[in-house]
């Protein structure tokens, strides 16, 4: 089973950049999109003509903001939107597909914002989202994918020193928040398979960052520990363009 996660930074924007052809190239069983920035009817229109997938979306109340979508070749047992807390759920950041052997979670974690204006909110989110992940893990194994908006270690960011505790996505509070997911029994599959590999999944649009590979690894596929040995490949695909993020994913046997 091939699972791909990709922050598309606007599903309607990426539609005009060869998105349908890219999905065929990726040839994944499940494709998880973040930051769709659209409502359900707009997403369905943008994905019209992409055959072979069941499509499920969770959209923000605010139009043109946030949003997550799952495309799955296999019909899930059920699909669950949100984590059950109004403070977070109005932003359309979580959708879960339940399959027989695991839960597949798609998340777009809040950015702490300019001047770290939302850092307090981000801490609350991390705590309450982790509690939700624990609830799922108590029922069956979990695969949690998405834009976690944090570079976890120095190796995950091109310029750690000037960004540390100054830039959203690389404060100690955010780093610690992500560490708690690993402490809770989730495994960063890419880092597990590639402990010393420098690879990024997001690049600023400014100053030719992508061409210079001045990036951040903030997109992850996490799995419950009991699934790690089933992961045959964990990868990042920087050659896939169309967004300021690139796809990340795993191949896993069940």
Helical element count?
Answer: 9
Mean pLDDT: 97
If you compute it from the alpha carbons, what radius of gyration comes out, rounded to the nearest whole angstrom? 17 Å
* Count of structural domains: 1
Could you give the distance between the termini? Answer: 8 Å
CATH hierarchy, class: Alpha Beta
CATH topology: Deoxyribonuclease I, Chain A
Oligomer: single chain
- CATH homology-level superfamily: Endonuclease/exonuclease/phosphatase
Strands in their spatial order, largest beta sheet: 3-4-2-1-14-13
Strand content: 25-35%
The backbone outline, from C-alpha atoms, is globular
Judged by helices, strands and strand pairing, the structural class is alpha+beta
The CATH architecture name reads 4-Layer Sandwich
Number of strands: 14
Q: Helix content range of the residues, please?
A: 25-40%
What pattern of helices and strands is seen along the backbone? EHHEHEEEHEEHEHHEHEHEEEE
Main beta sheet strand tally, sense and closure:
6 strands, mixed
Q: Which consecutive residue ranges, at least 5 long each, have pLDDT under 50? A: none
Structural description of this entry:
The protein has 254 residues and is an alpha+beta fold. It has a single domain, classed as Deoxyribonuclease I, Chain A. 27% of the residues lie in helices and 26% in strands. The chain has 9 helices and 14 strands. The strands form 3 sheets. The protein has a 6-stranded mixed β-sheet with strand order 3-4-2-1-14-13. Strands 5-6-7-8-12-9 form a 6-stranded mixed β-sheet. Helix 5 links the parallel strand 7 and strand 8. Helix 5 packs parallel to helix 7. The mean pLDDT is 97.
């Amino acid at each position: 089973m091939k699972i791909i996660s990709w922050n598309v930074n606007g599903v309607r924007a990426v539609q005009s950049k060869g998105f349908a052809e890219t999905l065929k190239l990726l040839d994944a069983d499940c494709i998880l999109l973040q930051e769709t920035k659209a409502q359900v009817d707009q997403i369905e229109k943008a994905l019209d003509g992409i055959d072979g997938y069941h499509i499920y979306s969770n959209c923000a109340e605010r139009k043109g903001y946030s949003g997550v979508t799952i495309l799955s070749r296999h019909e899930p047992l059920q699909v669950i939107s949100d984590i059950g807390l109004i403070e977070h759920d109005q932003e359309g950041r979580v959708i879960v597909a339940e399959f027989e052997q695991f839960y597949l979670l798609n998340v777009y974690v809040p950015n702490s914002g300019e001047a770290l204006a939302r850092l307090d909110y981000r801490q609350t989110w991390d705590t309450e989202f982790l509690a939700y992940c624990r609830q799922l893990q108590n029922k069956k194994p979990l695969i949690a994918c998405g834009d976690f908006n944090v570079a976890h270690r120095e190796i995950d960011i091109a310029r750690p020193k000037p960004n540390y505790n100054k830039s959203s996505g690389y404060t100690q509070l955010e780093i610690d928040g992500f560490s708690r997911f690993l402490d809770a029994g989730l495994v960063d599959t890419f880092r597990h398979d590639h402990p010393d590999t420098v690879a990024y999944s997001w690049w600023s649009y400014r100053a030719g960052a992508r061409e210079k590979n001045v990036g951040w690894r903030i997109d992850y596929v996490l799995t419950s520990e009991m699934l790690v040995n089933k992961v045959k490949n964990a990868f990042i695909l920087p050659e896939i363009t169309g967004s300021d993020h690139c796809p990340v994913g795993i191949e896993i046997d069940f």
